[in-house]
Sequence to fold (546 residues):
Amino acid sequence: MSATNSYLINGSFNQAISPFDRGFSYGDGVFRTLKIINGQPQHWPQHYQKLVADCAAISIVSPSAELLISDMLQLFNPDEIAVAKIMITRGEGERGYAPPAVTTPTRVIIKSSLPKYAQSNYTQGVALHVCNTRLNAQPKLAGIKHMNRLENVLARMEWKSESIFDGLMLDAADNVIECTMSNIFARFGDDLITPDLSQCGVAGITRQQIIDHAKPLELNVKTAPLSIERLLKADEIVTCNSLYGAFQVNKIGTQLVHTADLAKRIRELLAHD
Amino acid sequence: MSATNSYLINGSFNQAISPFDRGFSYGDGVFRTLKIINGQPQHWPQHYQKLVADCAAISIVSPSAELLISDMLQLFNPDEIAVAKIMITRGEGERGYAPPAVTTPTRVIIKSSLPKYAQSNYTQGVALHVCNTRLNAQPKLAGIKHMNRLENVLARMEWKSESIFDGLMLDAADNVIECTMSNIFARFGDDLITPDLSQCGVAGITRQQIIDHAKPLELNVKTAPLSIERLLKADEIVTCNSLYGAFQVNKIGTQLVHTADLAKRIRELLAHD
Fold:
């Protein structure tokens, strides 16, 4: 797991995390997962903007883009295809929730292999489990990709079958919010709905790119509450994230879902973004 | 911060945390804070029982009591008064929320100084800030002292004045739940109410000891929902945790609170438990 040169901590190899790091003690930090192609972080401006915003939401000053790019140049070869996980924590602190008056954020970049997605994910779509674990409402943390992810962990532990690609997560009121590692869109005629994330969920940058650049899809993109009952009546459903782009959903729980070409069109859209 | 011999990781000095540790990535772990007097962990059976239960709630198998006691014998001198923070995480794992099929929990014990509480905390009581940050409802994690503590961090960052001892945390429906680092009890005549923690909050062992051994107090101890409006009408209010025992609350926000001898009686109770 700790293969040589597979990660950098504060720009250096052969470092480790202090048990005093508040990322460890309290999950007091944020992260990003992005695709590296030929050594280049994909959609970097969007990822960096979101990293800065997520840090700011919990009063952490993000390291500069220059520093992170310099780290990535150290960590990834120019011909490499891989995944970068960037974690920024508030840094070290004594016991107790109050952060020190002055903190130095810890930055970690981990390299891992790009998952090998089954060809059928692209051609036939993917199946979702409906998670029993609900997402709680916390407007102060909603949308942020922070390091308090026990809900996602518990949700992901609910299934073991490899035929399930991701788990659909609802809030306490049966609204669809997202999947454990993906955002979700549902098409109803000419409307493309993605759940409102003002109370919970992670607002991924792929979701945002679809919202911002949907014009070629010729659909009315809307952010709105979306009940599970309504989702199951959608004409098409897609999941999305920064690593795979978009997949058509073909099954939710035991219910089959109609598939067409929306995920393919979104992948094309993202490729040109 | 990382003074020599101030912590043990998996029973060894001079270790650090891997960035692959799921405690770091996701806050995927639990912790305990306990007082060490003359090298002895206070109320150890209760702390260990709670540690095991909290681990089990998120499907981690806790290290044995023997292992933790052996760690504490290494870390604390027989004449030492200090604080032990025990953290147990799910262990290391690759990127992704799914834990590996086999995981080895990481155990960390950190030694720190016992906070120096002002004498006036004992004689006159303490003031509480009313936090703007609310505790979200998540029945699967309620009561557990897990490492997803961003809400407490955000709440604790709301005040800087040293005249404030702790912050009162409410749920979204204006029910009092706890303080950032303490539980709370309110006396109404012969009734002693502590908030119901079935939806959120941390069920501390001092709170549980008060519930279990309240007989000498000659009060009817009840766990019940408690609105902030009702709390402010209490005859007496006390906060409690494993380090200081119990303190009388003399002020909540700008409102003065009547004080009497409940905290003192609870401290006596805990000393004999």
About this structure: Chain B is about 25% helix and 30% strand. The helical segments of chain B are 22-26, 44-57, 65-75, 119-123, 150-156, 205-212, 228-231, 262-271.
